[in-house]
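pasting for the record
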Amino acid sequence: MLTTKLFSGLGFFLLGCFYLGKEMSPRIPSSVKSLVSFADINKNSLSVQEKWAQGKEIYTDFCIQCHGANGKGDANNFPPLDGSDWLTKKRSQSIHAVKYGQSGEILVNKMKFNNTMSPMGLSNKEVADVMNYIMNSWSNKQDKIVTKEEVAGIKE
């Protein structure tokens, strides 16, 4: 009996949340639509958790060997991604590095790194997914998501 009431109550709560979410969703002015945030992902796309999981899988396959599971790099050859000022201050260059590779000296958190990161052959969507994972993992917290359209706009 208690179990039935519990499940019924939970069902009504979730149904209410769904209804309120549809009816009370804010209208976004067209002038602001280009600034996409995690809260603005439309209902027909993957959830934030699914995008994050896809980005994590790409990170595990392509990035973890150099930047580590904790995103801290190795302090000599491979820069940290966790708490990286380069990610936040040089968003376009960060996307470019993941999309096309990186060579030459860069300054990350006041430390010089001069190594080569080979291009990984990722699609624009995969680049966006891994960037969103990196930019929202460890101590990193970004509100503006990287979209595949933004990645497509980054030219070599």
